[in-house]
């Protein structure tokens, strides 16, 4: 071959400034792109060998990276297909002409998964080298034995030279002469960090200074039938060394209508909605792309851990982030379905184990039901409710469990719940006396979850057990009548008005069961929901006594005793004590007020 000089054929004006400053968001990407090109070169040679178009020895297919601090160079060498001088002119000198794309188009009918094996697409990856290099050399020898080796040199402008070279081994060597502002990449450990991030699972061995840094056949590329639980757990530990063992996992493997593989793990999580980023990693043909997967993975599954790999996920030209595409929505829908199917299978096959894991699983399920209609339709069959006795029910089971006793006179089914068993014990006890069941809703999503159930389930109300007196929460045909006369009722209310000394608090007297508390303080359901929604959104909401309602039980013996007392001071003292008792039951008595209450209790007992 004859030496030649020329000008790069560029289809975009001022391409070098674009490449250096705008095409790639992070300069470290250069190593991902050049190593990926080397892997492609090896994969192409394997493909040609399988077709009989290359009959020589494949030898040791690999990509090698070395650094020379003194010479300020980084060298990337592969033992792949190599290039002729004509191919350099075609694929390198014509920027944005992708050799990978041409190769796939040529052989896609002969090699069924050619597009899944070849990484490159846009023909721009090589030029990412100029983000860090002031000069780039290519020394290459084609697999075609008669073709001579060639050397290409460019110093970051539109001029290049191609000349004959001395190279005995098939493949391509790229030498980067690192610019002063990029000398951080001359550090071997910096290169290792980049390779661990982007090249950890590439399908061809990648070596840094002679040491292989990648697994060529990661777990998600192996058929599930060939794997054991131990394999999945070990892989999880490798990905997340500090995490607890996962609850279970889903192995994704689909080839129609799109290609998708991967493994999603359900981690053990606490009662929190803090979405931990960087836990699901997106790969394309085993090349790491990003950990921002919100477009692919439904919002409620962002708490999962694992890896997704798909050549069908549309990437921008720099392969750094996703582009809008119908396949993204299809993949999102597919992942939702696979997760729902897996949960349904676990529920059917081992309900006890499913219930034992519900603390963690429940957050995923409730979040999904709240945010994804299709997931709700599947999840309502395995979504569980837990009562204060620790028993679990599906939604349908709980309807059957409560409909006979907790249907009110308007034919509404009323589900009661507590978010604090100890604090709301008095109100729970009132419900138990009527054989009402009480659910535990103490999760961060349970406020919204309860509201959703009211919307979804016909004639069903969800009420916290302290939202009103129990007989008002579930209205029955039979009602207790107050034994007091109207005058006595007014006298009692006046006494409590003096004790409470707050005109904004609603005080009412009702005829309740004699074994109910003499005085009850309740927080209306709508105020409680506003409070909990505000807390979920990070707003501060300080409840004050104006938010509460005070109900006096006209049928309690202590109220009768109050009326019989002739000494007004003693009446006030008893009424004050009963009000403090009600505040204690609601958990709003503390500090000095609590100390005074204890002292008064001792005096009364005395």
From TrEMBL:
InterPro entries: HATPase_C_sf (IPR036890), Heat_shock_protein_90_CS (IPR019805), HSP90_C (IPR037196), Hsp90_fam (IPR001404), Hsp90_N (IPR020575), Ribosomal_Su5_D2-typ_SF (IPR020568)
Keywords, alphabetical: ATP-binding, Chaperone, Cytoplasm, Nucleotide-binding, Stress response
Top-level division of the source organism's lineage: Bacteria
Entry annotated with the keyword Cytoplasm: yes
Gene3D superfamilies in alphabetical order: 3.30.230.80, 3.40.50.11260, Heat shock protein 90, C-terminal domain, Histidine kinase-like ATPase, C-terminal domain
List of residues binding ATP: 33, 37, 78, 83, 98-99, 172, 319
Alphabetized CDD domains for the sequence: HATPase_Hsp90-like
GO molecular function: ATP binding; ATP hydrolysis activity; ATP-dependent protein folding chaperone; unfolded protein binding
Family: Belongs to the heat shock protein 90 family.
PANTHER family attached to this UniProt entry: HEAT SHOCK PROTEIN 90 FAMILY MEMBER
Name recorded for this polypeptide: Chaperone protein HtpG
